[in-house]
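User: Hi! I have a protein structure encoded as tokens and I'd like to know what sequence might fold into it. I'm fairly new to this, so please keep things simple.
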């Protein structure tokens, strides 16, 4: 069983599902607020065959990053997974279990009715291409593609919502779905912050390593009493968007106890990134990351009043009234 992240506040076990659709408010395409075409559907189906077509034409918005207009499906769709790389990118190759950040559009094969898109609202999708985390059709179609690519593919019900469909988003059990994805970035267990090193000259503040090789940075705690107020400083300052209090983020992190320097939690140790809403974590994390830029590494010192106080999680190795120190790499936000 995957260990539950210790920075989460009292929420149900398991990470926040990130593969939510954008909200398309146009008359011809209204996304549901309650469900999305990217919600994972349980499937025991074997892996599909990847075929070249048929696939509908992209009639407008043909450049990477432009909102595409896609024609109706030409005749009968394949019962397998039709995939076409429309624009071949030159970035890193996406592997299964990677997180991807992408703009996308989804529509129904027979009618060309658009279900949703992220282009209109300038908020790209962030999802993990892992079994049970997203649509199986996405996992099979996008694994092996490169960042910077535009990929068009058609997913029959077997690798989408199955025979039941999804009434909340207007998908019938017989609908084949057509997707266009612009893959903007990908992240895995070796991902790190990207930016400029910031001088760490604050008195009484832990010094954090600036390596960006995907390995856990060092955390050097001064021989002094811990601060009584929250500390949140850049170690590496990225140039991405600023985090808001309600954002969902993807991070690498490492946590140690101030008094002992002992590590009690780490994504590096689990070889798995963590994603969460800033509204679902301990107050020190929420306050410490709000206002920071994506791409950055941040050192956060969390006093007991903004951490676990006198009620730390059982088996966590955190004593009552412990001050916690974190190195956090902010990889992406949704």
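Assistant: Happy to help. Inverse folding works backwards from shape to sequence: for each of the 334 positions I chose a residue that suits the local structure. Here it is:
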């Amino acid at each position: 069983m995957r260990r539950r992240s210790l920075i989460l506040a009292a929420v149900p076990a398991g990470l926040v599902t990130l593969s939510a659709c954008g909200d398309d408010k146009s008359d011809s395409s209204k996304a549901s607020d309650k469900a999305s075409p990217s919600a994972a559907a349980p499937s025991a189906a074997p892996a599909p065959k990847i075929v070249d077509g048929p696939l509908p034409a992209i009639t407008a918005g043909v450049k990477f990053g432009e909102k595409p207009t896609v024609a109706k499906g030409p005749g009968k769709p394949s019962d397998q997974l039709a995939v076409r790389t429309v624009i071949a990118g030159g970035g890193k190759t996406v592997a299964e279990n990677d997180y991807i950040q992408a703009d996308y559009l989804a529509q129904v094969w027979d009618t060309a009715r658009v279900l949703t898109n992220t282009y209109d609202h300038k908020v790209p999708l962030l999802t993990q291409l892992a079994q049970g985390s997203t649509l199986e059709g996405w996992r099979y179609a996008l694994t092996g593609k490169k960042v910077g690519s535009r990929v068009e593919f058609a997913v029959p019900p077997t690798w989408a919502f199955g025979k039941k469909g999804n009434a909340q988003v207007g998908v019938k059990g017989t609908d084949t779905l057509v997707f266009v994805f612009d893959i903007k970035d990908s992240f895995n267990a070796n991902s790190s912050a990207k930016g400029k090193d910031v001088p760490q000259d604050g008195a009484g503040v832990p010094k954090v390593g600036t390596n960006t090789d995907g390995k856990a940075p060092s955390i050097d705690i001064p021989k002094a009493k811990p601060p009584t107020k929250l500390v949140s400083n850049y170690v590496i300052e990225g140039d991405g968007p600023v985090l808001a209090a309600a954002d969902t983020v993807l991070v690498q992190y490492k946590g140690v106890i101030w008094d002992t320097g002992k590590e009690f939690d780490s994504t590096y140790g689990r070889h798995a990134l963590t994603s969460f809403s800033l509204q679902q974590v301990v107050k020190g994390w929420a306050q410490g990351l709000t206002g920071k830029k994506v791409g950055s590494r941040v050192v956060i010192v969390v006093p007991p009043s903004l951490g676990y106080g006198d009620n730390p999680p059982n088996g966590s190795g955190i004593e009552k009234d412990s001050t916690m120190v974190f190195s956090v790499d902010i990889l992406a936000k949704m």
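A useful reference point when you look it over: The mean pLDDT is 89. Feel free to ask if any position seems puzzling.
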